[in-house]
Amino acid sequence: MNRRNTLGTALVVLAVVLFVGPAVFPVQPVLTHDTDRTTRDSPSELREQGIPVVAYENLSERGQEVYVAALEGEDYRVGQDAGAPDFRYPTSAERREAFEADNVSGTGMVVIERPEDDSDLPPADERFSGAREEEEAKNDEQPEERREERRERVLRYDAMVTATDQPPLGSTRQLLRSRRRTSWAVAS
Length: 188
Description:
Elements: H1 2-24, E1 30-34, H2 43-48, E2 53-55, H3 61-72, E3 76-79, H4 92-100, E4 109-113, H5 131-139, H6 143-156, E5 157-165, H7 172-176
Parallel strand pairs: 2-4
Antiparallel strand pairs: 1-3, 1-5, 4-5
């Protein structure tokens, strides 16, 4: 009977630690960088909408590193102290407010103007066509010319969305509930 009480007490203590631990050591938000967005507008139209257009060469060294890492992976996540000063990282509440106010500049989108010779960069992961483009091509007298112009613009001007979010449930940070801030990308 004594052994049973000891085992029960140990299990209760373990349960308390497992339930209280995450409250004491909350998961820190991460900064996300997503280059999966596509923009079809010209740089002047983007600026009119309030979306910053930044030449790759004008990014800080850290900004260039983050952009390249985001191109190489699906999403690139870093700790809060490892972001790039070139980018704004709105929270989900700030993005929602910006969306509701029709304020595109507050959504965390930035457009990177890739250099003419971008052979050192990973390829842009942009889509060239969709339902809108197919519809325009049907009504267009010069569909091939416009399609090539659009393709070049989409490849040259790469949209990236940055944000402050909680890490995905399956990420290392979420599983370990670590308060430690790291500058390495969190595996998803």
